[in-house]
Amino acid sequence: MGSLKMTEKAPGAALPESSCAYLLQELKMIWDEVGQDQSERERILEELEQECQEVYRRKVNSANMSRIQLHQALAESEAEFTNLLLSLGERSFPGRPEKMAGTLKEQLNSITPALQEMQMRKEARVKQFMEVQTEIQRIASEIAGRLGTETVTVNDEDLSLKKLEEFQSELQIMKREKSDRLCKVEEYKVLIQNFGKVMGMDPSKLLANVHPRLLDGPNEQQTKNISDEILKKLNMTVQQLKEEKNNRREKLQNLVKALTNLWDTLDTTMEERQPYGQMKILAITSVNGMLGPGSLTLETIQQVESEVQRLNQLKASKMKELFLKKRAEVDEICKTQFWEQERNKIFYYDELPLLAMLKDYMLTLKEKEEEKYRQRENKKIQTLLVKRNENTLMLRPNTSFSRPSSRAFNSPGSTSIRSSQVSAKVLLLPDSENSPAEKDMHAKRIRNRAMQNALGKNRSCSTSHEDKTSVSTVKQGLSPI
């Protein structure tokens, strides 16, 4: 109440109508006019003073709370600013004042722009981390063969440039590995396509058996085919196709080799060999040589195999005919020997002993067969030389190989054999016309003539360029007949 009493002033003093003193003075005038009791007046003034104190207290408390909030906001801003500096890996910020001065509001206003700038930097840095880590996670999922990607969590406590560079380096390593795996996948696909074309297989089916996504085009789905499982399956498929290609090549080489031998044995014409000329070239191609599409298809191999079977059957039939022919000749020789032994006479054929003629004829056939074999070998050698030296002149055929056979055909024994094909008769001297001594003399002359013909032919064969050992072997093999 003291404060209210002190506000009382002289009646002549002018007071503003809105002031507390003016209001108290007006209230006193009303009490005087009414005749208010003094105790009642003091009670009312005491209540007014308490109410004023409560209002002031509320105002003070409100001001104090505002000050506390400013202190707290300033402390939080400073703490957040410090944490941002630490998380971003920066030691200081040029926009922040080194020493805080002024009122709390002034200090808070001075740090707020720097704090907002640091928050923007953090958001940008978090975005960079998110992009890099998301890309790393995506590539890792593709390599692991997972279809979905896991949620990426960025560590807010370490957003430094050093950490970001580490993630970027890891991302570059992952990208290189992804690129290498994509190259491997493309290499495997090219190999599978080439193997499929060479062996007549469908490359699309081969790739679909590995993984259906391998048939996708050059889009985003194609980049997901880089897992370890797909690479392993592709490698296994390539190895299987490579082994199958080698097996088919080896089988084709063996078939072509057998086919060539049958051609040479059966003296097959060039017209019959023409359809299989390309296959013969494929057979002599190196293992790593390039092969055209359809070179090793099952149809091609079956075609060569069928031809080999046909020629084998033809060879067997001809060998059977030759065997029957030789058997008939042997039977004829046996009959002739038996006839001579039974009758104690010599069997003459065009005035020559038949056994000597047959021996000479068989020797001549043997020489002809050897001559044909040498001519085939010489032809093979000439063919190989022409292929190796395409720009050189063709080798002149060696005519020396034909001399032994010509000599053999020009020998007296061969002349007698050819003449024997024109006329055939058996000359038997009757016992009534010739005596035993004369018949023996005549037989000796015939045998001597046959032996001279055989010896003359053998000497002509020995003087030729042919191998002496082979000739002697032939003579030894035929002499015991």
Notes on the structure:
With 481 residues, the protein is mostly helical. Among the domains are: 117 residues, no CATH class; 137 residues, no CATH class. 72% of the residues lie in helices and 1% in strands. It is built from 15 helices and two strands. The protein has a two-stranded antiparallel sheet. A hairpin with a 2-residue loop joins strand 1 and strand 2. The radius of gyration is 61 Å and the shape is rod-shaped. The protein starts with a helix and ends with a helix. One of its GO terms (molecular function) is microtubule binding. One of its GO terms (biological process) is microtubule cytoskeleton organization. Belongs to the MAP65/ASE1 family. This is 65-kDa microtubule-associated protein 8. Keywords: Coiled coil, Microtubule.
Q: Which stretches of 5+ consecutive residues score pLDDT under 50?
A: 5-12, 393-435, 454-481
- Portion in beta strands: under 5%
- Number of strand elements: 2
Order of helices and strands: HHHHHHHHHHEEHHHHH
Structural class: mainly alpha
**Mean pLDDT, all residues:** 74
Gross morphology:
rod-shaped
What share of residues is helical? over 70%
Radius of gyration: 61 Å
Question: What's the arrangement of strands in the largest beta sheet?
Answer: 1-2
**Gap between N and C termini, in Å?**
170 Å
